[in-house]
Amino acid sequence: MTRRLIEQFARTAPPSLPPPELETLTPRELEVLRLMARGLSNGEIADDLVLGEATVKTHVKRVLGKLGLRDRVQAVIFAYQAGLFEKRADAQ
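RE: above sequence
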């Protein structure tokens, strides 16, 4: 349900310029943020990026810290507002 709600928001939200805070993220952290925005869990992100789950947790913590966010929900909202959402081909 949450994933559908996020996808609906992404379809209706107006495009905006990427916030400058994104420049503080490493390429891997940006990749983790994009996967978080798709609703993937730490375990799913680890599988997708072929990383250990502890490494993913470290990346998530750093993303939240660098962007000044308190939790994954805020990270997902930030990613959508920044235009980082990439609609999957298999999404309905």
